[in-house]
Each structure stands twice: as C-alpha cells, then as structure tokens.
Specification:
The complex is a heterodimer of chains A (about 290) and B (about 250). Chain A folds into two domains: about 40 residues; about 240 residues, MetI-like (MetI-like fold, Orthogonal Bundle). With about 290 residues, chain A is mainly alpha-helical. Chain A is about 75% helix and about 0% strand. Chain A has 13 helices and no strands. With about 250 residues, chain B is of the alpha/beta class. In chain B, the strands form two sheets. A six-stranded mixed beta sheet of chain B has the order 6-7-8-3-9-10, with helices on both faces. In chain B, strands 2-1-4-5 form a four-stranded antiparallel beta sheet, covered by helices on one side. Chain B is globular and about 55 Å long. The two termini of chain B are about 35 Å apart. The chains are: A mainly alpha (about 290), B alpha/beta (about 250). The interface between A and B is medium-sized, with 22 and 28 residues.
C-alpha cells in the first residue's frame, strides 16, 4: 500500500458509522436535556400563579380561601432545619475530609470511607427513621432539631467525600513548599492546602445544601410539619417539601397550586446553588491549572 | 567542622533501597553540587538534608545527617525546626496560589508567627525579595498573586520565600531545570551572590551548571557516591573512570 492510499479521505461504511455514533450521542443528550426542560417548564407553568406577596409572607389561610394564604412558615422552617443541619454537617464533613485526604491511611480511613459510601447510598427515609427512633421517640416530640439531625446523616457524607476529592487535587508541591518552610503539618493544611481548595470546598458545601433543601422523607418523620410559624428548634416545624407533600395530598385545587409554587421556589433555589457551585468549580480549576 | 555532614546514609521507598551508604559534606560559605544521571538518587539525597524525604508515604531513612554536629534524625528533633534552619527550593516553582507576591515571600514568617507586625513583614519581605534579585521587578505590584509571575520570577519568589525564614543552609533541587536560559543564568548568578551567607547544596543534571556554580561536586550513580571532591578536580582530573566518562559526556 502506498502512502497516498493511507491519506485518502474517510468514506463509505466508516464515515456512516461515525455519523451514526455522533447522532446517537446527540440524541441521548437531547433526550436528557428535554426531560429536564419539560419538568422545569411544567413546574414553572403550574407554580408561577401561586407566587404572590401573600405566598411569601402569610401562614396558610382557611381551606375555603387557600389562595389568600401563604407558606411563610415553610420557608422559615426550611431555613431553620437546613441551617441546623449545615451547622453540624459542614464542620463534621470538612474535618472528616481533612482526615481522609491528609492523615488517613490504613484501616480507620478505609472504614470511614466505607461508612460514608454506605450513607451516601442509603435511602433518605432510613435516615429519618433512625433519627425518629433515637431522637423523636427518646425526647417525646418532633422538632426542627430532629429534622436537622436527619439531614446531617445525608449531608455529612456528601461534604466529606466531595471535599476529600478536592483536597486530593491540591498539588503535592504546595504541601512540600509549605513544609519546607518549617511550617507544621496542621498549619500547612489550614493555611495552604484548604485555601488552595477553597472554591472546590464551597462547591461541595453548596451541593450538600442543595440536596438537603429538597429532602422530604427524613424530615417528614422528624420535623413533622406545622401550619403556623415556629421558631423554636425544639418544636414541630414546617418545611417547603413537607408543605408540598401535605398540600398535594388534599383534593383542593388551590392547595395544589400552592404546592406547585413551593416546588417552583425549591427548584429555583437548587438551580441557583448548583449554578453557583458550577461557576466556582470552573474558577477553581483555572486557578490550580 | 563542616556545616553539614552526611554519614553512612541509606534511604528507601518502601522496600526499594535508593541510597546506599552515602558520605558527603557541605562546607560553610560554599556551593556543593550533586550530579548524576536521572534516577541516581540526587533528589532523594538532597531531600534527606532537611527531612523532606520522609514526607513521601513509605519513605524511610537510616544513618546520620549532621547539622553543626547535631544529627537532624536524632530523637526528639522536630522536623519543622530542622526545615527552618535548612531551607529548600524545588524543581518546579510552587508559589502559594492564594497569596500575593509579598505574602508568598513572607509566608514562612507570617504563618509560623501570626503576631508579626505588618511593617516588619513588609521589611523582611523586601529584604528577601532583594536577596533573591526580584525586588526591582515586583516592587510596584506586591499585592498581585504570586502565580501571575513568569516561571523564572516564580522560582526566584520561591527562593525569596525560603530566604525570608533566614535559614543557614539552602537546598536547591534542580532549581533551573524548568526554566529558559536567561532565567537559568539569573538563578546561577543568584547562587553566586548567596553563597557567602549560606551553605548551598544544589542538585542538577546539567554538568555545565555544576561546573559554573559549585565549589564541591558529588557524582552519584545508582544510589551510590562515585566520587566527591573539589569541582575543578572532578571536572578535569577525576580519580574514577566513571566520573571521567560522565563529565566528558560519554553516558548519561
């Protein structure tokens, strides 16, 4: 075979195969994106009518005129429950990640990794049932605090594993540069490695918060729900997903609209967090490159 | 007494022994070059001079490294304290990406003692940047990220960072191997300027560089010392045939 023949343009069966693969790949992407788009648009269409000043500022009105009420207690409750969860899960997750990425070796580290892996794939209702048993039953009442703890079980492994990955991406040379200055290991981690991974860690945290925002099952068994504003973390508390669940189960059309409104707000919040996380992680990659 | 003296040093990565019975000295106010082909253990050896070798998982050392007569591998010796006295610059410039030029230069000071005043940091940062020959190029943009400098400037920033801690010994692990010829020349001049005040050990696989900058040369092969002596002797009339073959470019 001569040189010229190997440089002939790609034709025939090979070209057809190439096109077929390209088209099927694009099709897969299109189907996935379309599904997402349809869901988002549908939620938008059904929920947009619920959004009003009352929706964000009032407690539920009587079932005769539900459209005059709102779900402010759900927003406050979600803020409180996710806040409590974040306050516990983020420090715990970060410490776990630092241990796994910087110190952990051998059996202890493997065990922790296994546990967090199992927790990551545990059905979230199990987290709720667990906290229901050890907190709600033990203390005798449902509460925002119990709801927060149930979310910790879900958030902690997300923060820990995602942060561990980010810390591992920090070049070894930076650690060595710091250690060679006579800085102790803990200071090297705290002042050089963690700041270098900063945006990546924030991404991990935001993803965990986004996940917690939409969780229903764990708080259903622990925070219970509430028709009124509650700011006492030790009392039953409402949350947006709980309100969606409760309203959607009624036969009242206007309450369905409110449920869609709640869904729309949740969707937007999660979308914003995810976009924020994405932007930060792109920046992070640029900085370490 | 030599500033540093390595006595019967062996080093391992896991079960793989990479240094075999190394003996070498580094004299105050002089430059000692470590040369040899890739994989001969140069970098491992220089990393044993300030206990950086043990930072690699599974790495192990046996033998003595004396600093002013004290074994840095002795019991109760804090590796961080060793590294404050024996500074190091690496092959690839590694400025801290989250810090400004000035904060990079004084990172060792600032992070080891959080109470040092701003004016003192600025003063000592300037001194270190001047010593590293970088001051004139960066004095108007000390607040910019250190990672925005050119490769050669970044490496001099790393030298400044090492000098700011005021070590007595400076270890340079192929400091110019990733740099262009002009930046390389700049680093070599710097080594000449610094050697009066510091004891310098430099690893290089560039023989001409060793010949240009060093007073003493150690030639290594397969993790062993082949020959150690004054640089002029190593390059003109070595005792060992293998040294002669290497410095005349017959292998490596």
């Amino acid at each position: 075979m001569t040189m010229a023949s190997t440089l002939e343009p790609v034709r025939g069966a090979r070209r057809a195969k190439d096109i077929a693969y390209r088209v099927s790949l694009w099709l897969c992407v299109a189907i996935a994106m379309a599904t997402l788009g349809v869901i988002a648009l549908y939620v938008l269409a059904r929920g947009i009518n619920a959004l009003s000043v009352n929706f964000f500022t009032k407690e539920p009105a009587s079932q005769l005129h539900p459209e005059q009420g709102g779900i402010v207690q759900s927003f406050i409750g979600t803020g409180m429950i996710v806040g409590i969860a974040a306050l516990i899960a983020i420090p715990l997750g970060l410490l776990t990640a630092v241990y796994l990425a910087e110190y952990g070796k051998g059996r202890t580290a493997s065990a922790i990794r296994l546990v967090s892996q199992v927790l990551l794939s545990t059905p979230s209702i199990v987290a709720g049932a667990f906290i229901w048993t050890v907190v709600v039953v033990a203390f005798g009442n449902f509460s925002a605090f119990a709801g927060g703890l149930a979310l910790v079980v879900l958030m902690w492994p997300i923060v820990a594993r995602a942060t561990e990955e980010v810390l591992r991406l920090v070049p070894q040379e930076l650690r060595e540069g710091s250690l060679a200055l006579g800085l102790p290991r803990w200071k090297t981690i705290l002042r050089v490695v963690v700041p270098a991974a900063g945006a990546g860690i924030l991404t991990a945290v935001m993803l965990a918060v986004a996940r917690a925002l939409g969780e229903t099952a764990p708080i259903l068994l622990t925070a219970l729900g509430n028709d009124y504003i509650n700011t006492d973390p030790l009392k039953p508390t409402d949350a947006v997903p709980l309100r969606i669940y409760a309203d959607a189960r009624t036969p009242i059309e206007a309450l369905h609209t409110i449920a869609w409104g709640g869904a729309l707000v949740l969707l937007l919040a999660v979308l914003l967090l995810s976009i924020g996380a994405r932007v930060l992680s792109v920046r992070q990659q640029k900085r370490l490159a | 007494m030599s500033k540093m003296e390595v006595v019967d040093l062996n080093a391992w990565f896991g079960t793989n022994q990479v240094l075999h019975g190394i003996n070498v000295t580094a004299e105050q106010g002089s430059v000692t070059a470590i040369i040899g082909p890739s994989g001969c253990g140069k970098s491992t050896l220089i990393r044993c001079f300030n206990r950086m070798h043990e930072e690699i998982r599974g790495a192990r050392v046996d033998g003595k490294v004396l600093f002013d007569g004290v074994d840095i591998y002795g019991d109760d010796i804090d590796p961080a304290a060793v590294r404050r006295r024996i500074g190091m610059v690496f092959q690839r410039a590694n400025p801290f990406p989250t810090m400004s030029i000035l904060n990079n230069a004084v990172a060792g000071l600032r992070l080891s003692d959080e109470k040092v005043s701003k004016s003192e940091l600025h003063e000592r940062g300037e001194a270190a940047l001047r010593a590293a020959g970088l001051w004139d190029e960066v004095k108007d943009r000390l607040d910019q990220p250190g990672a925005r400098l050119s490769g050669g400037q970044q490496q001099r920033l790393c030298i400044a960072r090492a000098l700011a801690v005021e070590p007595e010994v400076l270890l340079l692990d192929e400091p110019a191997s990733a740099l262009d010829p002009v930046s390389t020349l700049r680093i070599e001049e710097l080594v000449g300027e610094l050697k009066d005040r510091y004891t310098i050990v430099i690893v290089t696989h560039n023989m001409q560089q060793a010949a240009r900058v060093s007073d003493w040369t150690l030639f290594m092969l397969f993790g062993e010392v082949v020959e150690f002596g004054p640089t002029t002797k190593i390059f003109t009339s070595p005792d060992d045939q293998r040294t002669d073959d290497y410095v005349t470019g017959r292998f490596g």
